Amino acid sequence: xxxxxxxxxxxxxxxxxxxxxxxxxxxxxxxxxxxxxxxxxxxxxxxxxxxxxxxxxxxxxxxxxxxxxxxxxxxxxxxxxxxxxxxxxxxxxxxxxxxxxxxxxxxxxxxxxxxxxxxxxxxxxxxxxxxxxxxxxxxxxxxxxxxxxxxxxxxxxxxxxxxxxxxxxxxxxxxxxxxxxxxxxxxxxxxxxxxxxxxxxxxxxxxxxxxxxxxxxxxxxxxxxxxxxxxxxxxxxxxxxxxxxxxxxxxxxxxxxxx
Length: 259
Hints:
Blueprint: E1 8-17, E2 23-31, H1 43-52, E3 58-63, H2 67-83, H3 105-115, H4 128-138, H5 148-158, H6 168-178, H7 185-195, H8 202-210, H9 215-226, H10 232-239, H11 243-251
Antiparallel strand pairs: 1-2, 1-3
């Protein structure tokens, strides 16, 4: 057996061997297929590579004159090595590659129909019970806190990059789906309680002041609303703020409730 070491551009048959020289896989390929240890490998092949390390796997390449010869050599090598007692991880007897196969339109339609309604890459549909088990398995688990260096790395990588662009149609659909939604009173109360006693930074106050909202305006809004003589809509018109902003100010979410 000859170890070519370099990737060839012709069809060939190749062996993958353990560090002691015992072959565990026979394949047929072209270009760099023999040196690829991860892509399109079965789980038994991956287990062997993981056990010994990718760099410790022996690669032996045997050039062929044609693809057909490569298939025939693959079949012959698999049969011979198995007869000699070597444990190969090949799932078949070889010669069953589908390179260059052209799928008919009828077959494409059948595949399309078979996959319709299946939303994951494996084509499986999970039951409600299975989904509940998956949800319960991850509930309560918290990811380890990221380091300052890692956060800085992520921030630098995203700096200046716009978010995922949405079409006008998608934006309209999102707006319609969110229109009329209101947070439950319990949620608003919890948000207000979490902000109670927290002092806002000078930068935050300056930013809100530039936006046209000051501490005095916030106090006036809360005083007017507590009087019961007006509503959030009228307060929004009076102070040139949206109804959502008025609601956040009153509940203490947007501005500290103690102001």
